[in-house]
Design brief:
By secondary structure, the protein is mainly beta. It is built from four helices and 19 strands. The protein has helices at residues 185-189, 192-195, 210-218, 264-268, and strands at residues 3-5, 11-17, 26-32, 39-44, 62-67, 73-80, 84-85, 91-92, 115-122, 127-133, 142-147, 156-158, 171-173, 179-182, 234-237, 241-243, 251-253, 281-283, 286-288. It has a six-stranded antiparallel β-sheet, with no helix packed on it. Strands 4-6-9-10-15 form a five-stranded antiparallel β-sheet, with no helix packed on it. The chain has a two-stranded antiparallel ribbon with strand order 1-17. It is globular.
């Protein structure tokens, strides 16, 4: 009998203000509240340093803390899923793979992937901007939650499991048959209109499609196409704490004959992870989500 295996996990990214007299900054703490490991990924925008070599493995019910730069930093965070390590040391993931590397170190990754985008320490009031994007598709639920900042500081993101409702033409399936990702329309069909390229690369000509509306209905506070509303980028001034990311993953599969759905490499807890480069940027405190330039 077919069943649904719900693998629910959450990552808690916490930025805590340091009150040093020289370089006030943030400590980033990544918490995995799940009974299995996950592969978060951190990637800077151009000109900013790579944090933690761009990725690491995080075992179940554990956390990892590291400093974010005290000066302005912008970048993105996502999670890879379904990763397996091979005898030659190469890593392959069902979503978010970056050329078989354990640590991407600035290299690109493969969509679909839910993406969180941040710009820290910008402006004269120490603003931090943040948003969640489904422009490159969806692989895990993700939210950004700030605490004790000044301003509206809303929670944004996507709590829905879109793997269960993804349209057939957008589905990415594992060899076992279960859905592991939901592509963007651009990734699935590649047209200028859906990718907002060439003539369509402006707010006037780049429009929502029926596919981007699927994402928007489920997750209204996310970006769903390249020129989506910039009001969906939110800001906090001098936050004391930002609980930034909460991931969740649902995998539908038949449990008959599949007692080891989680791969041996996951159980071994030995794999670091990676991220994808995006040419996303804040401009006038607004984020634009463009298609990634992949490093091959």
């Amino acid at each position: 009998m077919a069943s649904t295996l719900l693998l629910a996990f959450s990552l808690l990214f916490t930025f805590v203000t340091l009150t040093t007299s020289v370089n006030p900054g943030f400590i980033l703490t990544v918490v995995n509240n799940c009974p299995f490991p996950i592969w978060p990924a951190i990637q800077p925008n151009a000109g900013h340093p790579v944090l933690e070599r761009g990725g690491f493995a995080l075992g179940p019910l554990t956390h990892r803390s590291f400093p974010a730069p005290a000066q302005h930093w912008s970048g993105r965070i996502w999670g890879r899923t379904g990763c397996t390590t091979h005898a030659n040391g190469r890593l392959s993931c069902a979503t978010g793979d970056c050329g078989g590397l354990l640590e991407c170190d600035g290299r690109g990754g493969a969509p679909p992937a839910t993406l969180a985008q941040f710009s820290l320490h910008h402006g004269h009031t120490d603003l931090s901007s943040y948003a969640v994007s489904l422009v490159d598709g969806f692989n895990v639920p993700m939210t950004v939650t700030p605490h004790e900042g000044h301003g509206t500081c809303p929670v944004v993101g996507c709590k829905a499991n879109l793997l269960a409702t993804c349209p057939d033409k957008l589905q990415v399936r594992a060899p076992q048959g279960h859905v592991v990702g939901c592509k963007s329309a651009c990734e699935a069909f590649g047209t200028d209109e859906l990718c907002c390229r060439n003539h369509y690369n402006s707010p006037q000509t780049c429009r929502a499609s029926s596919y981007s509306e699927f994402f928007k209905r489920a997750c209204p506070s996310t970006f769903t196409y390249a020129h989506d509303s910039p009001s969906l980028t939110h800001e906090c001034s001098s936050p004391r704490e930002l609980k930034l990311i909460r991931f969740g993953l649902s995998i539908q599969a038949s449990l008959r004959g599949k007692p080891n759905l989680v791969s041996p490499s996951l159980r071994a807890l030995k794999l670091p992870y990676t991220l994808a480069r995006r040419e996303d940027s804040f401009k006038h405190l607004r984020m634009r989500f463009y298609r990634p330039q992949r490093d091959m």
